[in-house]
Amino acid sequence: MNAARASLLALLLCWASAALALVAVPPLSGRVVDQTGTLPAADIASLTQTLKDLETRKGSQIAVLIVPTTDGEAIEQFSLRVAEAWKIGRKKIDDGALLVIAKNDRRLRIEVGYGLEGALTDATTKRIIDEDITPKFKAGDFAGGVSAGINRIIRVVDGEKLPEPEPPHWQSPGLFNTIDPFNPFVLAFVFIVGGVLRASLGRLVGSAATGGFVGVLAWLLVGSLGAAALIGVLVFLISAFIDLIPSGGGRGTRGGWSSGGSSDWSSSSSSGSSSGGFSGGGGSFGGGGASGSW
User: Fold this and answer.
1) Number of other CB atoms surrounding residue 130 within 10 Å
2) Is pLDDT at 13 greater than 60 in this prediction?
3) Residues contacting 254, CB < 8 A, separation 6+
4) Taking the CA atoms of the chain, what radius of gyration do you get in angstroms?
């Protein structure tokens, strides 16, 4: 019994030592994480922009990690640990992919999220490694190999049907693309309905009724309760105060509102992009992909 306990304790100690010896997963500091200093800054910037454009256009996330070594750990196990920690790709869509390179080990792997396995099959990722990446690595062109591999992955991902990227949280789908509140016909309709209701119910009650009526119509057309509410409030304000705006300043007032909103949004957007922040979207991985060496 004592011998059995001693053996079990030894096994546990060996397992714990092996776990502690694993190379730590680097923090996700950007779409391209190079711990070896292999890629020039210009190439990192170009790759980052390419991957950012893909996410904006398609919604999918791809990241690149270059480490010196996995210190004896299989590239497959290390890549999966990175994938589980970074969670590249959208949650429940799982449309993420990772290109992991262990430079000193001369090993690499493309790890594929569940949602991209239909396009980036094991056979496809193996071909990308063998045909696009490793030939350039063997020639010493690491930047060219990474770029060629990423571009090929993106072309494959572009052929996969995926949900469109969600619009920003402040913008309801189709809002102002479906209905332009400043369209002359919309304004004429608001004036007529608002005038009738205000004449019979009074300024505030009539304007509120007009906003509610137009909001319901907008909800039926746009299909978004948030968009309909915004349009209804806008119509209420127009109906309630349009006769208080001097005729000569109407266009200027409208122009000032549009310009101010656009300027604020642009400033906020620029500030967010310049911060360089990037995080995974909660995607899941199951070990799909392929490995290679050079």
Assistant:
1) 13
2) no
3) 182
4) 28
Task: Identify the residue whose tokens are 């290109």.
Answer: 99
C-alpha dist (Å) from residue 99 to 25, 111, 223: 14, 7, 40
Which is higher by pLDDT, 211 or 261? 211
Summarize pLDDT for 244-259 with one digit per residue, the tens.
655 444 444 334 333 3
Does 11 have pLDDT greater than 70? no
User: Measured in whole angstroms, how far is the alpha carbon of residue 116 from the centre of its chain?
Assistant: 15
Count other C-beta atoms under 10 Å from residue 125's C-beta.
28
- With b meaning 16 or more CB within 10 Å and e meaning fewer, what string describes 136-166? bbeeeebbbbbbbbbebbbebbeeeebeeee
Sign of the C-alpha dihedral computed for residues 273, 279, 285 and 291 taken in this order: positive
- For residue 282, count CB atoms less than 10 angstroms from its CB and return exposed for 0-12, middle for 13-18, buried for 19 or more: middle
Which runs of E-coded beta strand occur in the chain?
Answer: 32-34, 61-67, 96-102, 107-113, 285-293
Cβ count within 10 A of residue 255: 10
CA distance 132 to 147: 9
DSSP 8-state code for residue 23: P
What's the pLDDT score for residue 263?
34
Helix (H) or strand (E) holding 185: helix 184-201
CA distances from 219 to 176, 181, 230, 238 (A): 13, 14, 10, 19
Most confident of 128-132, 157-161, 223-227: 128-132
Closest CA to 111 of 293, 292, 291, 289: 289
Whole-angstrom distance, CA of residue 284 vs CA of residue 236: 46
Pick the more confident residue, 172 or 262.
Answer: 172
Closest CA to 25 of 80, 82, 75, 103: 82
